[in-house]
Structures are given as structure tokens and as C-alpha cells.
Backbone:
């Protein structure tokens, strides 16, 4: 019954090697059937088997004394003995002279001591893909056990085993023994156990204690670096051990970022083995060490994950408290919310940092009542604390911090709060929590909070606040006023390019040398926008790339997502949409969990959805954002959101677009915002040409129109909806369609295109078919909807 | 710091700032600043001096205090039009 099934892949390689008199090196992990394949191929020919499993060749007969033509050297990866290695090299060198054919088998990549021989002798190589069973071969193997597997089951088996010959053989064996024709969990379990026992014998037993300990310790993790492995295992010889493992087998897969991961089946094996050999306390301690590694590398989510696995509640609280010291832009509140929300209320009430953190978290999650609940708890704590005590001071500071930084509070009374905090911070023993003035956005006016109200007296406030802000914010305040003032002037078009750029450059320089990278991002983003405003897309790209390099070198990971979103916007402006689909896959899904910190990504997502003609989805997201922008007093983004809404409604030919746009104009007029309209350029132009602007100042409106017109000229493909036709139109069809959208008769069109009337009818028929319509009128409407009339 | 050209300031029980369309009653705490402006003190540095003397503040706190005033009455205060020195 148990007849070997020929695997065509390796058979071909063996034949090729034999025909061309090449040395063949076959590499494959345990269970891939290397030896079986070679034995089968040479079953009718005499061959000499040598084996290096012990680290050396027990037999080393002289070449001239070997009768067999075929020499097979198995387990070559294990050979460490110098004489054995030299023997094999000699075999290879002299094989032709003695009419011998050599096949080498190993579990790893080609051993380094054979590389020169491989070069000189032009080895042929076979690997796991050659050893894997095809679907037909798997079927044949099952047939040998009289198993008639359904196609669906066979699909699953092939997907799970990846054609691993031994796995398929075990499956056939167990299904036969259990009298089953259906590939189910009970079969899988039996196969797993058999595979584990196999690995135990041929892999685990071959290693010394040191290697075993390391392999058992690391199997708890999906991936790890050398540094992590050293910390988790306490073994400083990790690089040597990894190298040793790689030289005899393919345990690990190394990724481009220098992280290692186990081959999946081997990981399951080691986890099974660990569950037998290790106590629970050992496993917990192991997790704790991994948590420490992530904690030291500031990867709080992973640290919390592993502390939880280790059952270290006290460490979780400690980490959450420390995290609450950071501002929302770097604190990962949202990502770690499950841990905060799982904290017992009594634990939270004992810590000012945790109460403050909870208030901030709920505010980010748009639950202002819960945010206020914890704010009031903090106030109560302050009230009951001993007067003048450290606890009371801390509570006062955190309350003031929330008064400034809580996203839902807007900027009312913020200067007074800053003033009170400045008084407190004169006492050097009081440490103020970090602030995020930009909220990781390329903006200060519209960053952590919306400062549109302040922009109305921007110069006055800049003069007054420069020194106190730089003092109060420390590093976060360096260059801030310069950049903020430039942004205000840019957005309102009240500052010339020279002044904008000079202020931005000085702000960038100051922040870059002794400030924060967040301010640099704001400055760089505005420089890009200014260049784009002037049609200088290439320079804008250079500025962005320079900043991107700076951010990468500074490891400013917290900015990467918004930087990516910003660049997508730059591409959209220039009509480049090839990255849109990929970008949309990575954007947060507001329907799963809404986080206000993702607002910038959402706004770019809306534009991407417009481009893809997913207008309904775009509108849904706009409505989500509208609720947020309204309740959290985000004036700038409220206007931006309404502009995009009006564009969508206009494209859907919904009458409401005009009221929406007028609402945006009215609100924006208070702050004299120009650029928020201008940046929508050609997408907004047709609306502005039609909207009745009653109630809006004429000079302001004219300025908007001019700016929008300018951008429309530079970026005529912005937000042009992608052609969603299943079959694209030919150039002739596009030309005809555009003419159909005009007032010309059919005969006039055929004359203009120099084609016969019948040919025109033929083209029209194809056009209608591709557009999914039945008449010229419908074709015109569809063309208009898809923007094809403007192509 | 100056009021907009269309702004009037009247004193009854308290100061009332009006621009013909809207009006705002000044708070007690702000009256001395408005009074200083009514006396013709328009220079920000001099207004800061007034605040520092009145409230016994340091310069930094006085700046924040005056900024609060600007935020509160910003609708009525004339924006600075002149080109400002770009400080390094």
C-alpha cells in the first residue's frame, strides 16, 4: 500500500543533473522526502550512500576503489570534520575523471565550505519547491491508501501542508486508519502529533541543551531580533547559535528588517514541546522578559501585551501611568485603550496620571461625558488632597493640562490656563506634562487644537505670546510662533510668499536644531503647500522628501501615518492616483473604531473615495467627521469637510450642495480663510461659478475665486474620478463621446471624425455597451457623472 | 494695540465695547486695561507695564494676561497691518 509517489519537481532536477553530469545539491527541511526521492530515482542503479549526521563521514573509500557510479552524501550540513570536508571536495573535483555522479543532500542552504566547489563545478540546485507534492501527486498518494478525498478537502490539505510530502503521507495514513474520507480536525490533530514526534526525533534530539533552551524560549514569539532573543534567553551567544542553526537547517526566516521568525510548522512543534517541558512559571517569566524588551524599546502596546500574558498587573499599571505622562500624539492611548478600560476604577482613582489619562482617552474616543467624569474625579481628588502637598500640586497641574489639552474643550479660556500653569511652573519642582501643539499634523493652526479664532489677531498674539510660550512649552515651543504666524498668513492669504517662506524656514531651522520634529513637520507641510500653490510641484516633492529623510533618521514614527496621508494628498493634487487603492487598504476604518487622532487620515480618505467614485462611502465618512468637528470646535476642518461635501453633492446632482457650500463660506469668512477653498481647485471651481454668494463679502469671495482658479489651472486632474468602466474606451470612442456630449448632430460628428454614418453608429453601439446605457442621452449623463466629457 | 476704527467705548456701570453691530460688556478684571487704552496708551510695552504694576506680575505673566485680553476682545481690536520683524 505504501508505495512511493514520484514527485515530478525533484525527479526533473535529478534527471537534469544526471544528463548534464552536474553535481546536484538538494536542500530541504526535515520531512521533505529528499532521501526518499533520491532512493526512488536510483532504485534500479547501484549507488553508494554516505552520511554526515555524526559530523563526519564514517566511511571515506578512495575514489578509485568505489565500484558504484552514483555517490549520495546525505546530511551534508552536519559535517564539521575537516578531513571529511576535504574528502567530499576531492570527490567533486575528480568525479568526471572516475566517471562518478554526485548528489548532496542537506537541510540548509549550501554550506559555506562548498561554495567554491559550487562555483567551479557549476552545481545544480534543488529546493523545497521541487520536493513539494503537486495536487495530483497528493491525490495519487491518497489513492494508495484508498482515500477518496473531496476536492474541497484536498484544497484545504494542500493549502495547509503546502505540499509537504510527509504531512500528506501522515494524513493519508490516519484517514485510512480512522476510516475517514473527510479531512477534519481529528485527522489534523493526529497528523500534528505525528509530525511533532518526527521533529522531536530528527530535529530536537540532534541539538545540545543550549540550543534547545534557546529554541524553546523563542517559540513564544511570532518574530524577534537578535537583541530581543538575547534579553529573553539571557544568552549572549545568540548570533553564533542562529548561525549554527542556519548552517544545518532552515529553522528561521529572516526578514529585511533583520527580524527572525520560525517556520510555522516548527514553531507549533516547539510550542508543543515547551508545553510538555516547561512549567507555567517559566513561560510567564519568559513573557515578562519579552515585555521588558518592548518596554525598553518604547513599544508600549507590545510591552502591555506580554506583561498581560505574564500576569503582571502591577507592571501594566506602572506602564499605563508612565504612558499617561505623554501627550496624545505619542502616548498611544487609543491603541492601548483595552488596558486602560480594563483597569479597576479603584486603581485609577489612586493615580492623578491615570485619571488624567482616562479623561484624555475618552475624549479621543469622542465620549465627552466619560471624559468629563474623570476630569471631575481629578478635581475631587485635588479638593480632598492635603493643602500644599505633592499630591495636590500634581492634581492641579494635571487639571490645568486637561483644561488646555483635552480635545473636546476647544480653546476657550486657554490663555488663562496657560497663565496659571506658568505661575505653577515657576516652582521648579513641578514638572509639566508634554504638550502636542500639532497633534502630529502638518499644522499648528489646525493641529492639536483649532486656533482659527486666534488667527484673527495673529500678529498681536504672536508678539505677546512668543516669550511665554517658548518658556512654558520648552522644546515644543521652539520655532512655534514663527511657523504659526506663517500658517495664519498663508491660510488667510494676508502674507506674501517671501514672508511666509522666511518665517517657515526660520521656524524649521530653530525647531530642527533645538526644538521638536513636530514643528518641523508643520513648517515643511506649509512649505510644500506654498510651493504647490505656485505650481512648483517638483520643488514641493523635494521639500517633502527632505523632511521624510529627517523624520526617518529621527525615528519620528508617530508622524509617519500623517506624512503618508500628506503625500497621498500631494499625489491627488497632481492627478496621480495609482497609490490610492493601496492607501485605502491601510486607512483606519471609522466604522470599527473611531479615533479623533486619525482625523487627518480620514480627510485624505474622503478625497481618495471621491476619486474612486465611492461617493456614498465618502459622504458617510463626512457625516462622521461633521459630528466630531462640530462638537469639538474644529472650525478649519469643519469648513474643509463641508467643502468636500458640497463637491460630492454637486457631482451627485443633489440640490443641497449650494446651501452646504454657502455654510462653509459663511463660517470661513469670519477667519478670512482662503487656502481651504483654494486647495480644492478644479474640483470646487464649477461650484463657485454657480453658487449664489449673497451674504458673503464680495472682496473675500473674489479672492477665493481667484485662488481656486489658479489652482485649477495648475492641477486640472485633481479629484478627477477614476474611469470605472469594465472595458476602457478607445481613443476614437473617447473623442466621439465628447462630441456626443456637445450639440452636434450625428451627421456633423461623422463628418468631423471623417467616418461614415454607419461607422459612427457602430462606435456609438460600443460606447453605449461600455457605459451600460441605451441612448445618447443616457451616455451623455453617464459621461458627465464619470467626468468623461472633460477628458 | 488699538480699537478698530468703528468701535466705540462707553462707560456706565462698566465699560461697553460696541462696533455698531454687536456690543460686549467688559468684565471688572479688564476695566483697568480698557481705561489705560482710553487714556491713549496704545503701545503694547506700556500696556504691559500697566499690567505688571497693577497685578504685580512678572513680564511673562503680564504678556499672557494681555494676550487673554486680546483673545477676549479680539473682535473689536484692530489687527496689526504693518510688516513685522522676523525674529530669529
Residues:
Amino acid at each position: 500500500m505504501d508505495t512511493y509517489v514520484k514527485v515530478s519537481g525533484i525527479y526533473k532536477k535529478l534527471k537534469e543533473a544526471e544528463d548534464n553530469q552536474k553535481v546536484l545539491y538538494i536542500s530541504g527541511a526535515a520531512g521533505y522526502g529528499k532521501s526518499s526521492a533520491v532512493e526512488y530515482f536510483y532504485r534500479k542503479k547501484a549507488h553508494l550512500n554516505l552520511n554526515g549526521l555524526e559530523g563526519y563521514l564514517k566511511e571515506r573509500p578512495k575514489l578509485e576503489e568505489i565500484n558504484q557510479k552514483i555517490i549520495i552524501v546525505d546530511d551534508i550540513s552536519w559535517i564539521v570534520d575537516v578531513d571529511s570536508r576535504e574528502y567530499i571536495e576531492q570527490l567533486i573535483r575528480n568525479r568526471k575523471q572516475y566517471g562518478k555522479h554526485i548528489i548532496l543532500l542537506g537541510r540548509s542552504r549550501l554550506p559555506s565550505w562548498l561554495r567554491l566547489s559550487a562555483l567551479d563545478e557549476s552545481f545544480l540546485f534543488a529546493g523545497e519547491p521541487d520536493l513539494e507534492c503537486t495536487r495530483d501527486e497528493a491525490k495519487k498518494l491518497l489513492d494508495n491508501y484508498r482515500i477518496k478525498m473531496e476536492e474541497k478537502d484536498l484544497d484545504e490539505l494542500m493549502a495547509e501542508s503546502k505540499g509537504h510530502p510527509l504531512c500528506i503521507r501522515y494524513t493519508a495514513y490516519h484517514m485510512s486508519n480512522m476510516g475517514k474520507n473527510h479531512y477534519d480536525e481529528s485527522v489534523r490533530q493526529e497528523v500534528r502529533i505525528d509530525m511533532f514526534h518526527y521533529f522531536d526525533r530528527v530535529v530536537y534530539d540532534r541539538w545540545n541543551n543550549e540550543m534547545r533552551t534557546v529554541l524553546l524560549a523563542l517559540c513564544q514569539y511570532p518574530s524577534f531580533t537578535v537583541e530581543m532573543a538575547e534579553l529573553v534567553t539571557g544568552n549572549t551567544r545568540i548570533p553564533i547559535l542562529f548561525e549554527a542553526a542556519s548552517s544545518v537547517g532552515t529553522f528561521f526566516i529572516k526578514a529585511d528588517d533583520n527580524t527572525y521568525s520560525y517556520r510555522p510548522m516548527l514553531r507549533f512543534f516547539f510550542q508543543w514541546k515547551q508545553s510538555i517541558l516547561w512549567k507555567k512559571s517559566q513561560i510567564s517569566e519568559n513573557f515578562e522578559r519579552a515585555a521588558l524588551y518592548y518596554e525598553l524599546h518604547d513599544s508600549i502596546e507590545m510591552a502591555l501585551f506580554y506583561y498581560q500574558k505574564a500576569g503582571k498587573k502591577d507592571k501594566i499599571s506602572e506602564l499605563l501611568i508612565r504612558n499617561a505622562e505623554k501627550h496624545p500624539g505619542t502616548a498611544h492611548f487609543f491603541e492601548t485603550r483595552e488596558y486602560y478600560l480594563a483597569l479597576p476604577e479603584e486603581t485609577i482613582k489612586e493615580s492623578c496620571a491615570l485619571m488624567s489619562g482616562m479623561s484624555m482617552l475618552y475624549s479621543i474616543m469622542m465620549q465627552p461625558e466619560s471624559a468629563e467624569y474623570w476630569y471631575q474625579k481629578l478635581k475631587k481628588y485635588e479638593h480632598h488632597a492635603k493643602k500644599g502637598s505633592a499630591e495636590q500640586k500634581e492634581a492641579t497641574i494635571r487639571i490645568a493640562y486637561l483644561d488646555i489639552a483635552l480635545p473636546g474643550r476647544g480653546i476657550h479660556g486657554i490663555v488663562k490656563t496657560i497663565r496659571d500653569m506658568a505661575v505653577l511652573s515657576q516652582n521648579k519642582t513641578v514638572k509639566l506634562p508634554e504638550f502636542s501643539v500639532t497633534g502630529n499634523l502638518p499644522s499648528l493652526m489646525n493641529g492639536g487644537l483649532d486656533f482659527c479664532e486666534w488667527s484673527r489677531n495673529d500678529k498681536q498674539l504672536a508678539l505677546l505670546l512668543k516669550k511665554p510660550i517658548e518658556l512654558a512649552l520648552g522644546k515644543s515651543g521652539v520655532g512655534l510662533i514663527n511657523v504659526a504666524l506663517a500658517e495664519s498668513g498663508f491660510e488667510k492669504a494676508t502674507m506674501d510668499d517671501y514672508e511666509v517662506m522666511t518665517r517657515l524656514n526660520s521656524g524649521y531651522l530653530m525647531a530642527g536644531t533645538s526644538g521638536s520634529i513636530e514643528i518641523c513637520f508643520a513648517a515643511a507641510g506649509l512649505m510644500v503647500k506654498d510651493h504647490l500653490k505656485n505650481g512648483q510641484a517638483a520643488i514641493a516633492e523635494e521639500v517633502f522628501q527632505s523632511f521624510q529623510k529627517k523624520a526617518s533618521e529621527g525615528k519620528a514614527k508617530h508622524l509617519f501615518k500623517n506624512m503618508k496621508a500628506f503625500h497621498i494628498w500631494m499625489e491627488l493634487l497632481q492627478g496621480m492616483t495609482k497609490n490610492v487603492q493601496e492607501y485605502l487598504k491601510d486607512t483606519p476604518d471609522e466604522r470599527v473604531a473611531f479615533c479623533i487622532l486619525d482625523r487627518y487620515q480620514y480627510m485624505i480618505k474622503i478625497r481618495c473615495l471621491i476619486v474612486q467614485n465611492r461617493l456614498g462611502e465618502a459622504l458617510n465618512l463626512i457625516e462622521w467627521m461633521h459630528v466630531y468637528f462640530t462638537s469639538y470646535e474644529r472650525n478649519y476642518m469643519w469648513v474643509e469637510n463641508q467643502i468636500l461635501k458640497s463637491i460630492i453633492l454637486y457631482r451627485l446632482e443633489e440640490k443641497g450642495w449650494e446651501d452646504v457650500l454657502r455654510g462653509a463660506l459663511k463660517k470661513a469668512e469670519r477667519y478670512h480663510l482662503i487656502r481651504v477653498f483654494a486647495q480644492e481647485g478644479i474640483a470646487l471651481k464649477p461650484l463657485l461659478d454657480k453658487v449664489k454668494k449673497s451674504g458673503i463679502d464680495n472682496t473675500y469671495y473674489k479672492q477665493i475665486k481667484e485662488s481656486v482658479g489658479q489652482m485649477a489651472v495648475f492641477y486640472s486632474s485633481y479629484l478627477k474620478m477614476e474611469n470605472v468602466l469594465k472595458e476602457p474606451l478607445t481613443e476614437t470612442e473617447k473623442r466621439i463621446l465628447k462630441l456626443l456630449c456637445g450639440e452636434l448632430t450625428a451627421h456633423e460628428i461623422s463628418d468631423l471624425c471623417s467616418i461614415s454614418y454607419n461607422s459612427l453608429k457602430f462606435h456609438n453601439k460600443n460606447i453605449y455597451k461600455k457605459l451600460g446605457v441605451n441612448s445618447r442621452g443616457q451616455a451623455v449623463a453617464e459621461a458627465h457623472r464619470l467626468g468623461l466629457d472633460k477628458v | 494695540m488699538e480699537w478698530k476704527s468703528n468701535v466705540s467705548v462707553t462707560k456706565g456701570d462698566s465699560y461697553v465695547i460696541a462696533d455698531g453691530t454687536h456690543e460686549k460688556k467688559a468684565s471688572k478684571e479688564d476695566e483697568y486695561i480698557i481705561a489705560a487704552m482710553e487714556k491713549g496708551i496704545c503701545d503694547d510695552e506700556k500696556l504691559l507695564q500697566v499690567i505688571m504694576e497693577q497685578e504685580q506680575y512678572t513680564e511673562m505673566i503680564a504678556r499672557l494676561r494681555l494676550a487673554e485680553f486680546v483673545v477676549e476682545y479680539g473682535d473689536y481690536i484692530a489687527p496689526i497691518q504693518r510688516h513685522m520683524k522676523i525674529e530669529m
User: Anything to note?
Assistant: Chain B has a mean pLDDT of 90.
